[in-house]
Structure formats: structure tokens, C-alpha cells
UniProtKB/TrEMBL annotation:
GO terms for molecular function: oxidoreductase activity, acting on NAD(P)H. This is Protein TOXD. Pfam families: ADH_N (PF08240), ADH_zinc_N (PF00107). InterPro entries: ADH-like_C, ADH-like_N, ER, GroES-like_sf, NAD(P)-bd_dom_sf, Trans-enoyl_RdTase-like. Belongs to the zinc-containing alcohol dehydrogenase family.
């Protein structure tokens, strides 16, 4: 086994590629040789605002199993191709990050890479699968796919061209929602329609966007997933007569809800890990429901991908450079707001 390198936090706001030990293989974990990683906004935000000295960075990865812990129950074995997510920036266990040559990940939360996906494509799935399981099936209470909803249930995916939005549109379709409404820049309209959106509206003019959504839904919109954090469009589009749920993945401070029919929820993806963790001075205990939901959703998700019913986001490979150094450059592009409509992926040799 070759030496290890990882992106590790040196101080708040600064992470570098450095030599690293092999992470300790805990009983319910898997040791993995990483072949590709994908970037999420949470990666650079953890570095800038939340991490401790020594935190390993990164959520999404795809790679090959090196060793399986004694308590992992999924039937993974050495040499299997695998993908998923780690708890990068975990202040309880500093080595829980995916941006390294060798990593560990919770065995029962990972999935085998379907034969129709490359390492690069598979690396984009991990955090997205967790987010979708909680947003659509915990908070919005959609039926697990495949399903048919009667009467029809409209759903709004705000930020449809984001990594989460691309998956959400497809899962909402498979869960029987209709119509599916998304927002994006006009350049992404055709792509989102191909994924299953019935209507795609330009978000740049907030008043016009709300009007277009209401022309489609009337006053019946009760399910909203906001992948960006733009309450000023989502709230006015929602029903004023029927109870509804607004779910966001954003960490922006919440605004005032003037519509008493709206309940706000937020995805806390790390609860799917089945372990306690700490963030911003708060301790979060084990959430058995989220852990079991995540595992069940992974099984459904694997089959849907294998059957070609779920497509991964459009990827840009090694933008700014290959490997871990390239990933640092990619996170800087994200900080500067220069990434839209694509997922940044980096190959690891």
C-alpha cells in the first residue's frame, strides 16, 4: 500500500494537501482507495467556518475497497468498486474526510458502483443521495419510488440545476409528483426538462417567477425543496389555504414566515451517519430514523441507477488541475461563485 496524502485543515480558512497516515479502520467502517472525488459547497464552507486544526476535508468519493471492518454488515469485499459520502470536517473524529488517497467510510452507508457509471460519475452521488432521502422522503413526505400519487401533487424544486436539484427532479418524477416545477437560468431549461421537469422558470425576476408558478399551481403548492435558500420566491408561491412544507438545504439565516400554513424544515445530512457529532458548539445524538431511512433509500437508489432511471449531474473533470491540488483550486472557484450547472470532479491517482 502506497503512502497517503489528504487535504487537511491547517487553520480556519486554510486547507492544504499534506502527507497523512492511513486512517484507522473502525469496526463498522471500510478502508477505501479513492479514485475520484466530487465537490460540494459544504466542503469549502467547513474549511472556512466550521473545521478544527487537523480536520480531513471532503464528502463525496468513489473508489475501491481495500479492507472491510469486522462489524460492517453490507457484503462488501476487497476489490469492490464503491461510492458514497464521508463526514468531512467531523470535529469528533478528525480523519472522517474523503479528500485523500486512502479513506474510511461507514460500511452500511455506502453503495456498490453500478456497472453503467464511471468512478467520476459515481463520485457525485454520495451527499446527494443523503440529501434527497431526507428532503423528499422525510420532510416532504413523498412516497418512495416507484409510486403513483392521486390526486396529483405539485412540487417545486428551486435551484433545479444544482447538484441536489438535478437528483430531486428525477426522484420527484419517480415518486409520482405532477406537475414538477423547477427554477434555473434559461441555459438549463432544456436539460431540466429532459430530466423530468414539467415547467422550468427563470428565477432572475422574482415577481415574474412567483406569478408563473402560481399560474400553474393556483393555490395548491404545498411541497417545496429549496436547493439554494431563496425564501422570497418559494414562500409566496406556496398555498395560503392548505398546510405545506418548505424544506431547504441552505445554511442561510431563515427569514420570517408570514404564511401560517408553511412549516420550514432543513436537511441535516450528517444525521444519516448513525453516529453522534458536534457542530458549532452543539452536540447531535444518534438519529436512528435518518440512519435507517438512508440505508433503505440507498438500496432503492442503487437499483434505479442500474436500470438507467437516474442520471448523474453534468460533470467537469479536473477543472483547475487534477488530483487533490486540483480540488483545492475547484473549491476556490466555488467560493468565487464561478461554478454553475455542473459538478466539479477530480481524479485521484
Amino acid at each position: 500500500m502506497s503512502s497517503n496524502k489528504a487535504i487537511i485543515v491547517q487553520k480556519l480558512g486554510l486547507a492544504q494537501v499534506v502527507d497523512a497516515p492511513l486512517p484507522k479502520l473502525r469496526d463498522n467502517y471500510i478502508l477505501i482507495e479513492v479514485r475520484a472525488i466530487a465537490l460540494n459547497p459544504a466542503d469549502w464552507k467547513h474549511i472556512d467556518y466550521l473545521s478544527l486544526l487537523g480536520n480531513w476535508c471532503g464528502l463525496d468519493y468513489a473508489g475501491v475497497v481495500v479492507e472491510v471492518g469486522s462489524a460492517a454488515t453490507k457484503p462488501f469485499k476487497k476489490g469492490d468498486k464503491i461510492c458514497g459520502a464521508c463526514h468531512g470536517g467531523n470535529t469528533v473524529y478528525l480523519e472522517d474526510g474523503s479528500f485523500a488517497k486512502y479513506i474510511t467510510a461507514i460500511g452500511d452507508c455506502q453503495i456498490p458502483i453500478p456497472s453503467n457509471l464511471s468512478f467520476e460519475q459515481a463520485s457525485t452521488l454520495g451527499a446527494g443521495m443523503i440529501t434527497i432521502s431526507q428532503a423528499l422522503y422525510k420532510w416532504l413526505q413523498l412516497p418512495l419510488p416507484p409510486a403513483v400519487v392521486s390526486p396529483t401533487l405539485p412540487v417545486l424544486i428551486y435551484g433545479g440545476a444544482s447538484a441536489t436539484g438535478v437528483l430531486a427532479i428525477q426522484y420527484a418524477r419517480l415518486s409520482g409528483c405532477q406537475p414538477i416545477i423547477a427554477t434555473s437560468s434559461p441555459s438549463n431549461f432544456e436539460f431540466l426538462t429532459e430530466l423530468g421537469a414539467d415547467y422550468v422558470f427563470d428565477y432572475h425576476n422574482a415577481e415574474a417567477c412567483v406569478k408563473e408558478i402560481r399560474e400553474v399551481t393556483g393555490d395548491s403548492l404545498t411541497r417545496v425543496l429549496d436547493c439554494i435558500g431563496v425564501e422570497e420566491i418559494c414562500f409566496p408561491a406556496m398555498s395560503t389555504t392548505t398546510d405545506g412544507v418548505y424544506c431547504t438545504v441552505s445554511d442561510r439565516p431563515p427569514g420570517e414566515i408570514t404564511n401560517p400554513k408553511i412549516r420550514r424544515e432543513r436537511v441535516e445530512g450528517y444525521t444519516a451517519c448513525g453516529e453522534p457529532y458536534e457542530m458549532m458548539g452543539h452536540r447531535f445524538e444518534i438519529n436512528v430514523h435518518d440512519y435507517e431511512l438512508g440505508k433503505a433509500f440507498n438500496e432503492i437508489n442503487t437499483k434505479l441507477i442500474e436500470d438507467g432511471k437516474i442520471k448523474t449531474h453534468k460533470i467537469s473533470t479536473n477543472e483547475g488541475g487534477a488530483g487533490l491540488e486540483g480540488a483545492l483550486a475547484g473549491m476556490q472557484l466555488m467560493r468565487e461563485g464561478k461554478v454553475s450547472g455542473r459538478k466539479l470532479v477530480y481524479t485521484i491517482d
